[in-house]
Design a protein that fits this description.
The protein is α/β, with parallel strands linked by helices. The chain has 2 domains: 4-143, no CATH class; 157-371, Rossmann fold (3-Layer(aba) Sandwich), CATH 3.40.50.300. The protein is built from 11 helices and 18 strands. The longest helix is centred in the middle third of the chain and has 17 residues, at 228-244.
């Protein structure tokens, strides 16, 4: 079957549901529907029909609203790989045959495996790749932010990693942002790995970070199966835009757990780890916190504290602190300006900006100088 290119009516696109993952692609660029014998790539836009609603009964629209799916809905999504231990493992198919909605942010793929607690994925049929006026398939990578070349010192970078999905990473990042904002700092937020979806970005924005960027801004539907060097480039790209925005400090979240292949590789890559001024580790329990602290220490990463789901238990906190020797920080503690002061002072001391962190009195002014 030969490839066919047909014009697509804007009125049809107007009725379609545009998902978060394709938010950077302007609708005016979508002029044709490309069908036939095609092998799609990660990031390619597709117009798809909803055939059976299962695990994902809603899709996240470009600006965050969750839209209920109905049979026969046409949705604009993109192909992508997915690695989510609590949900789906999925791959980009090699044709336009029926496949699955594997993430509510608008990722289409063919399911390889799923967690026993989740339903089978919502079933969709690709109606064709969306193309430009010449019939060239559109890809979200064509609309990524350009790299900014910056001069002067980079703002301090605080990074949140964890044991797994749902270990409390985003909550830790959000309350950390809140504490830094309450301390009087302009905070930028970034999530550099994971799957294209807005939940974490909106949470960082709600906490007071501005601006907040994620992998979609770097042109990726997900970071599964990307090289470690490419992910380091994503970090450089997004950090350059936060620095250009004049933030005082950056809070970065790295998705999934430290045993996930891309996360583990990135956190072992010297070009990336030399950017990290401080790390907070989120865990489900004291054993996970202890194992994570040991894993980070063996790589020479600057662990400043542990947090996450386990901090809901005073006993769990006591156990973790006894074995790690670092502070266990609850959400309440993280949003406290004095904790923000302590963390930032520690970072500046590590950078050599201060001789003794405990005597710092004017950290925001020092940060202003460091940020240029």
């Amino acid at each position: 079957m030969a490839t066919t290119v047909t014009p697509i009516e804007q009125s049809r696109l107007f009725r379609a549901k545009f998902t978060y993952a394709v938010r950077r692609v302007p609708r005016k660029a979508m002029a044709t529907l490309v069908t036939g014998k095609l092998e799609p790539k990660a990031g390619d836009l597709i117009l798809a029909r909803v055939d059976r609603v299962r695990q994902h009964p809603r899709v996240e629209l470009c600006h965050g609203r969750k839209s209920k799916l109905f049979l026969g809905d046409e949705i604009v999504v993109c192909y992508g790989y997915r690695y989510a231990p609590d949900q789906f493992e999925a791959a980009v198919p090699d044709d336009l045959k029926p496949c699955h909605l594997v993430a509510g942010g608008g990722i289409a793929g063919r399911m390889l495996s799923r967690h026993a607690s989740v339903k089978p994925p919502t079933e969709i049929t690709p109606l064709g790749l969306l193309g430009d006026a010449q019939g060239r398939p559109l890809n979200i990578g064509d609309y990524k932010l350009p790299l900014r070349v910056m001069s002067g010192p980079r703002p301090p970078l605080l990074t949140v990693v964890g044991t797994s999905m749902n270990s409390g990473k985003t909550t830790t990042a959000a309350f950390l942002i809140r504490g830094l904002v309450r301390y009087g700092l302009k905070v930028g937020g970034v999530k550099i790995t994971g799957t294209g979806a807005g939940g974490d970005l909106w949470c960082m924005l709600d906490a007071g970070a501005m601006p907040v960027l994620d992998i979609v801004d770097a042109g990726l539907p997900s970071t599964c199966r990307r090289s470690f060097e490419e992910l380091d480039g994503v970090a450089d790209l997004l950090i350059s835009h936060l620095q250009a925005a004049g933030v005082d400090v950056i809070v970065m979240e790295i998705a999934d757990g430290i045993y996930q292949e891309e996360t583990a590789g990135l956190l072992s890559l010297p070009a990336f780890t030399q950017k990290l001024d401080g790390v907070l580790f989120a865990a489900l329990d004291a054993v996970g916190a202890t194992a994570g602290a040991d894993w980070l220490a063996r790589r020479g990463l600057p662990l400043l504290g542990i947090s996450g789901v386990f901090t809901s238990s005073p006993l769990g906190m006591r156990e973790a602190q006894a074995f790690t020797g670092v502070p266990a920080l609850t959400s309440k503690a993280l949003q406290c300006p004095s904790i923000a002061h302590s963390l930032i002072a520690d970072i500046l001391a590590r950078r050599g900006a201060l001789k003794s962190a405990p005597v710092v009195q004017a950290v925001p002014a020092a940060l202003s100088n460091l940020s240029g």
